[in-house]
Amino acid sequence: MSVTDDAFLGGQLNILQPRQGYRAGLDAVMLAAAVEARGAPFRVLDAGAGVGTAGLCVAWRCPEARVVLVEREPELVRLAEENVARNGLGDRVSVVEADVSNVTARELARCGLSEASFDQVIANPPYHIEGAGTAAGNDLKAAAHAMPEAELDSWWRFLARMAKPSGRALMIHKASALPDMIEAANRRFGGLVAMPLFSRAGEPAHRVLLGGIKGSRAEFRLDAGFVVHEQDGDFTPGARDVLRLGRALRVAYGTTREADAAS
Length: 263
Hints:
The protein has 263 residues and is of the alpha/beta class. The chain has one domain (3-260): Vaccinia Virus protein VP39 (Rossmann fold), CATH 3.40.50.150. The chain is built from nine helices and 13 strands.
């Protein structure tokens, strides 16, 4: 496989990824930035991790995090393993080959994973529906960009399986998928908060982060959102802090009292 060596977080991470296949970028970094640092050891699962960009960004920003990357494509698993090693994060990041939409408890156990054991679970799933539009030109890219219409629900089901009680889930997706995301997440998580990501101020949101707390009874909230670019195309100061300095992107979950009610 032909690969490129790409810098993330201002060159703090160097990621190998397919030259022609699915390529991680801004979405993965934004997802990682929304993971809440705890100040004490905590476990994070990156579902459908690809070459590991989001999970590795979490590990770099949060030295107290222990991260598991779960990916089904063997070629991407191998690249993820290499990315973990070449960035010196092998003591805190591991890679598991499994299909998040179709994995049994026995298979998870064989991989050394147990359900309801992660403090935070994150996902950056395929954005397109199979059969809608033109398929990507190679199998690996097609699998990374498209999934069956009903599979979004299975991703949230997997996140709920793996999150601890009161654990937090985060997913980034195209903004038009927000109704389907809320429907799927609301069956398993409460205190849902949607953070729209705007390419420029005054334009419709192009991406959305949806977070929730397992077992919470708090109401849905719509965040004011985050603007990525200035009108001239440069990154906003906030976006530069997130993308180049690894700063956190604060997601306003339910209040402490509401979160405690989920325990």
